[in-house]
Amino acid sequence: MGEGKLKLCVFGTFNAGKSSFVQALDPHTRHIEANCPGGTTTVALDFGRVKIGERMVYLFGTPGQERYEFVRQILARGMDGAIIIVDSTAAPDDMTRKLLAWLKDQGVPVVLMLNKCDLPGSSPSRFAHEIGDAAVHLISAKNGENVHEALSSFVGTIVG
């Protein structure tokens, strides 16, 4: 993306907390959403930026429904790293498995952020067999818990 800049794409299933994650890092996030059963959903992207050390990190949140695969493909072009937001209160799902496999095939650094760890029913351990060698951080995007620390750690692995 250029000297001193990183492009990170934020992936995950519907309602995993991708928009909340980006908003926790940048309160001036821009996003395009639509009403749907159960609330709202991102239909194009979330865009935020945050400075980590000397680098400006640009975050592109992708839509979570499978029908928006083409949007994820477009946003992923030229990414320096990928963040998969996972709802730790839900069971592992096929979309997360497919995203993880696809991103590993792309050869970009990948991290899993197990979100909603503050909620009853959260069970990060149920994802252990799904993760393989991907780095993992426990977060609560809604209240900002461990969000900045997790992103800083991931950026550190990318830039060395």
TrEMBL record:
Superkingdom of origin organism: Archaea
Molecular function GO labels: GTP binding
Domain (G) ranges: 8-116
Classification via Pfam families: MMR_HSR1
Protein name per its UniProtKB record: GTP-binding protein
Organism of derivation: Methanofollis liminatans
